[in-house]
Design the sequence.
């Protein structure tokens, strides 16, 4: 199913969020995953910026990288544009 239909309320909130997490060329280290998971526990939605170096280092495209990020943090992708993804996790 399309993202717009799965999370319409969360998707409306996405543009107003500030970026709270970054994934750099070091990749999805245990520390990064732990921090993003912690943020998801505190907040319903988080916005994560994935830097270009990560895609180059891991040889992944954006869609694959965002899917892996959501999978490792136990969340769902609400919105993805450019190098930024908004993740949602039920409390």
Sequence:
């Amino acid at each position: 199913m399309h993202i717009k239909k799965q999370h319409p309320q969360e998707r409306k909130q996405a543009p107003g969020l500030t970026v709270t997490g970054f994934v750099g060329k070091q990749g999805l280290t245990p520390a990064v995953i732990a921090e993003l998971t912690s943020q998801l526990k505190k907040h319903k939605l988080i916005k994560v910026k994935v830097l270009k170096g990560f895609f180059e280092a891991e040889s992944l495209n954006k869609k694959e990288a965002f899917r892996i990020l959501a999978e490792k943090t136990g969340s769902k992708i609400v919105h993805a544009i450019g190098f930024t993804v908004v993740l949602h996790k039920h409390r």
Observations:
- Strands lie at 19-23, 45-50, 76-81, 84-88.
- Helices lie at 3-6, 8-13, 30-42, 52-58, 62-73.
- The mean pLDDT is 84.
